[in-house]
């Protein structure tokens, strides 16, 4: 099962384009090896055998969907593109559901390793609620004691008891975390099994506009041209207005900028920003940076920046303000787009960054 | 009881008048404001060693809407000063002439006094050298000057001071009246309101005195009830931030037809 | 037709999310609709798989929650004003519904859930 492969091997490639491998050894003084090497080099091909097919749903806010399981996996494993619609990020819904409905799906070997990240988070949250409930009980008792006018000794006895009991609850929870493997079935789940008795895959992978544009323009692996994508999202290229195109271009320029510098870029909506930057990807470590993309002339009041910085800081991330500047005219960009010269249009933009961090004089001494 | 005195400064920047935040200098007034649930922010510090101060002192700084609330509810009055070095009153020709005339009279009087002293000095000298009859006078070494200012005297009498008061109050009203409705709405529910920039909002709300209670609400910037769409990205950031510090994020708008304030409290649901 | 299809897509997405990701039960898409300036809003009700907060002691057992699916896009403004939210509360929610759960469907494939209370409401106890 894919889950059991070490992450380093599973996510070997940072992008869905691979270097040519398996070339024969080149022996400098043996001309035949040269010929053979050149032949192999010429014959090998590092593009995809077949472009990945996408569906574009709805017209106003488009949803770009990949629903073939292999293609979903491919996009996730090669650069962490897209999000599973029923998962936090990696499309693991099917595996999770199989684990949950274990009895029905015996063919999958179940074990601890089956626990998806989502399950772990869920359990932690439940345990935390239990823990806080217990703590609340003690606090209520303490309050009651004080109201009755209990002595200091009584109070410290109760506090000691609280500490003891909370510690043992923590230990218990840790233990149960390891062996817990509950299977639960609900009447609603019958909908998930088709006539053949197999689990229906409800989940597809959704790509954002910038991801799809990157995967059709910068690294063409989708079966769609970047211009078709732009037309579907923004309207016919011939009648585009700059103010409608610019927000998307701005987002894309920033996305492309960080992808080109080797970052794994994912949506930052949960943190109120545009992008999160991962050094390698979500399975390896937390994102270090929150990026907010701004126009070079854009300003906001102080509270706007401070709330963004508070959110980023609260999640131990650094807020990066990414300013995008058009170095040519608006008309020129539209002209280049209508001539289908996306490369030239996009290279007319400049990117510069600022780090914004909350500074507390009492805490940040160094 | 006397009025609480809120000090504001008027200044003229490139022809536009603007009014400063309110400042309270009297400890007694600060105590009374605190009982009214207006806490303000202490800002007094040592000018040269600002970073050395852990505890700040008077003056207490108030938000514009707090100042407006105090004066519209009859708890206090404004004391307006001008930030420019030349007071407004001196811009009027008649006052300027008056001050000039007063000055001239004073100078004349001082000259007369000096002449008188010199004369007496002269007499005493002539007496020394043998002539008699004249009495020696005091040398004018310590002439007393009155402890007042010509300019201030005129400011007080001046109709321009009343004009400045009027100007300051109307500027406050223009700038903060749309915030006063929300502020008064919160005050009516006995909340203590404090500036919210630390938490990325407009206000932080305490259920009582901040020294006794934790705050549990962050109020977002007011939006237009009919026109402004919800900014989901900002709500996501705000609610996330608020929930992390055990608060809710409060969206608010004024219904223009009824002037009624409407609020919605948002917090992270804890899943998803 | 367009807006209708779109609305249904979002509602289905949130329904599946509640039912098969959050593992809620009794999930039901209410028939009532609110047409707001060409946009259709619909509410989903359901029962969470576990208590969502420790205030639950006061709430009794896990109650039916009212979920409003809305759509967001990172470079376009939404159409949902506070006036519209007021309408949702009065027209689509039960009288005893103490809060609305906003399900924000983003175009990156994620759904975020936020509780919205009418008026000023203290944070839930955690």
TrEMBL record, chain A:
SUPFAM superfamilies, sorted: tRNA-intron endonuclease catalytic domain-like
EC number: 4.6.1.16
An annotated GO cellular component: tRNA-intron endonuclease complex
Domain tRNA intron endonuclease catalytic, residue spans: 250-327
Record-given protein name: tRNA-splicing endonuclease subunit Sen2
Active site: 278, 286, 317
Binding partners and assembly: Heterotetramer composed of SEN2, SEN15, SEN34 and SEN54. Interacts directly with SEN54.
Lyase listed as a keyword: yes
Pfam families xref list: tRNA_int_endo
Matching Gene3D superfamilies: 3.40.1350.10
MF terms (GO), sorted A to Z: nucleic acid binding; tRNA-intron lyase activity
PANTHER family, per the entry: TRNA-SPLICING ENDONUCLEASE SUBUNIT SEN2
Family: Belongs to the tRNA-intron endonuclease family.
Coiled-coil regions listed: 128-172
Key words of the record: Coiled coil, Lyase, tRNA processing
Purpose: Constitutes one of the two catalytic subunit of the tRNA-splicing endonuclease complex, a complex responsible for identification and cleavage of the splice sites in pre-tRNA. It cleaves pre-tRNA at the 5'- and 3'-splice sites to release the intron. The products are an intron and two tRNA half-molecules bearing 2',3'-cyclic phosphate and 5'-OH termini. There are no conserved sequences at the splice sites, but the intron is invariably located at the same site in the gene, placing the splice sites an invariant distance from the constant structural features of the tRNA body.
Any single GO BP term: tRNA-type intron splice site recognition and cleavage
CDD domains: tRNA-intron_lyase_C (cd22363)
From TrEMBL, chain B:
EC number: 4.6.1.16
CC per GO annotation: tRNA-intron endonuclease complex
Functional note: Constitutes one of the two catalytic subunit of the tRNA-splicing endonuclease complex, a complex responsible for identification and cleavage of the splice sites in pre-tRNA. It cleaves pre-tRNA at the 5'- and 3'-splice sites to release the intron. The products are an intron and two tRNA half-molecules bearing 2',3'-cyclic phosphate and 5'-OH termini. There are no conserved sequences at the splice sites, but the intron is invariably located at the same site in the gene, placing the splice sites an invariant distance from the constant structural features of the tRNA body.
Keyword Magnesium assigned: no
Record InterPro entries: tRNA_endonuc-like_dom_sf, tRNA_intron_Endo_cat-like_sf, tRNA_intron_Endonuc_cat-like, tRNA_splic, TSEN34, TSEN34_N
Biological-process GO terms, alphabetical: tRNA-type intron splice site recognition and cleavage
Domain tRNA intron endonuclease catalytic: 179-252
Enzyme class: lyase
Domain TSEN34 N-terminal: 18-78
Active site per UniProt: 206, 214, 247
Gene Ontology MF terms: nucleic acid binding; tRNA-intron lyase activity
Signal sequence segment: none
Protein name according to UniProt: tRNA-splicing endonuclease subunit Sen34
Assigned keywords, A-Z: Lyase, tRNA processing
TrEMBL record, chain C:
The organism's place on the tree of life at top rank: Eukaryota
GO terms of biological process kind: tRNA-type intron splice site recognition and cleavage
Range of residues in the leader sequence: none
Protein name: tRNA-splicing endonuclease subunit Sen15 domain-containing protein
InterPro entries (UniProt xref): Sen15_fungi, tRNA-endonuc_su_Sen15, tRNA_endonuc-like_dom_sf, tRNA_intron_Endo_cat-like_sf
The organism of origin for this protein: Zygotorulaspora mrakii
Family named by the database record: Belongs to the SEN15 family.
Residue intervals of the tRNA-splicing endonuclease subunit Sen15 domain: 13-126
């Amino acid at each position: 099962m894919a889950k059991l492969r070490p992450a380093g091997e599973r996510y070997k490639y940072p992008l869905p384009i691979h270097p040519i491998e398996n070339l024969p050894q080149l022996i400098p003084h043996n001309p035949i090896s040269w010929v053979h090497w050149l032949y192999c080099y010429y014959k090998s091909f590092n593009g995809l055998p077949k472009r990945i097919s996408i569906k574009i749903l709805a017209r106003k806010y488009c949803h770009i969907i990949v629903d073939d399981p292999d293609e979903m996996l491919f996009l996730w494993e090669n650069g962490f593109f897209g999000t599973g619609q029923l998962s936090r990020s990696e499309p693991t819904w099917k595996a999770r559901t199989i684990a949950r409905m274990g009895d029905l799906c015996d063919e999958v070997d179940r074990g601890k390793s089956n626990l998806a990240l989502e399950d772990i988070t869920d359990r932690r949250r439940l345990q935390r609620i239990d823990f806080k409930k217990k703590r609340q009980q003690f606090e209520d008792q303490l309050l009651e004691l004080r109201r009755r006018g209990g002595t200091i000794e009584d109070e410290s006895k109760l506090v000691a008891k609280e500490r003891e009991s909370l510690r043992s609850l923590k230990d218990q929870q840790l233990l149960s975390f390891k062996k817990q493997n509950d299977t639960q079935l609900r009447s609603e789940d019958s909908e998930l099994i088709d006539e053949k008795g197999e689990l229906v895959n409800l989940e597809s992978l959704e790509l954002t506009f910038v991801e799809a544009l990157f995967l059709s323009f910068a690294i063409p692996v989708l079966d769609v041209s970047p211009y078709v994508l732009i037309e579907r999202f923004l309207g016919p290229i011939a009648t585009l207005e700059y103010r409608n195109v610019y927000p998307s271009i701005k987002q894309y320029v920033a996305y492309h900028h960080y992808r080109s510098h080797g970052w794994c870029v994912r949506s930052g909506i949960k943190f109120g920003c545009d992008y999160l930057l991962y050094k390698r990807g979500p399975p390896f470590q937390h994102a270090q940076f929150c990026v907010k993309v701004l126009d070079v002339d854009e300003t906001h009041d102080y509270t706007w920046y401070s709330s963004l910085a508070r959110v980023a800081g609260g999640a131990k991330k650094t807020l990066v303000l990414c300013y995008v500047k058009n170095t040519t005219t608006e008309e020129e960009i539209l002209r280049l787009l209508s001539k289908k010269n996306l490369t030239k249009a996009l290279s007319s933009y400049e990117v510069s960054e600022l780090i914004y961090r909350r500074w507390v004089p009492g805490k940040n001494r160094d | 009881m006397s009025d609480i005195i809120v000090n504001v400064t008027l200044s003229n920047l490139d022809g536009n008048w603007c009014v400063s935040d309110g400042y309270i200098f009297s400890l007694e007034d600060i105590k009374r404001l605190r009982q009214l649930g207006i806490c303000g922010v202490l800002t007094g510090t040592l000018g040269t060693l600002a970073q050395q101060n852990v505890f700040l002192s008077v003056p207490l700084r108030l938000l514009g809407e707090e100042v407006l609330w105090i004066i519209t509810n009859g708890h206090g009055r404004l004391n307006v000063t001008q930030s420019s070095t030349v007071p407004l009153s001196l811009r009027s020709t008649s006052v300027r002439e008056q001050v000039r005339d007063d000055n001239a009279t004073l100078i004349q009087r001082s000259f007369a006094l000096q002449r008188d002293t010199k004369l007496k000095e002269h007499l005493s000298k002539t007496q020394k050298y043998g002539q008699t009859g004249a009495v020696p006078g005091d040398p004018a070494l310590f002439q007393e000057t009155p402890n007042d200012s010509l300019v201030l005297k005129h400011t007080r009498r001046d109709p321009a001071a009343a004009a400045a008061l009027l100007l300051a109050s109307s500027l406050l009203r223009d700038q903060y009246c749309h915030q006063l409705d929300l502020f008064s709405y919160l005050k009516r529910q006995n909340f203590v309101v404090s500036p919210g920039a630390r938490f990325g909002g407009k206000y932080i709300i305490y259920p009582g005195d901040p020294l006794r209670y934790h705050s549990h609400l962050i109020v977002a910037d007011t939006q237009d009830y009919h026109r402004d769409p919800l900014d989901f990205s900002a709500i996501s950031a705000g609610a996330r931030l608020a929930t992390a510090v055990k608060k809710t994020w409060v969206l608010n708008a004024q219904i223009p037809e009824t002037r009624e304030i409407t609020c919605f409290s948002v917090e992270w649901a804890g899943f998803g | 037709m367009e807006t209708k299809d779109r609305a249904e897509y979002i509602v289905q997405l949130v329904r599946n999310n509640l039912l098969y990701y959050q593992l809620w039960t009794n999930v039901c898409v209410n028939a009532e609709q609110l047409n707001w300036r060409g946009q259709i809003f619909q509410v989903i009700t359901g029962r969470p798989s576990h208590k969502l907060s420790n205030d639950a002691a006061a709430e009794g057992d896990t109650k039916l929650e009212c979920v409003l699916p809305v759509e967001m896009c990172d470079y376009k403004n939404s159409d949902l004003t506070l006036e519209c939210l007021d309408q949702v509360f009065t027209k689509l929610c039960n009288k005893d519904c103490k809060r609305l759960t906003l399900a924000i469907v983003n175009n990156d494939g994620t759904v975020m859930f936020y509780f919205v209370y009418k008026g000023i409401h203290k944070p839930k106890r955690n």
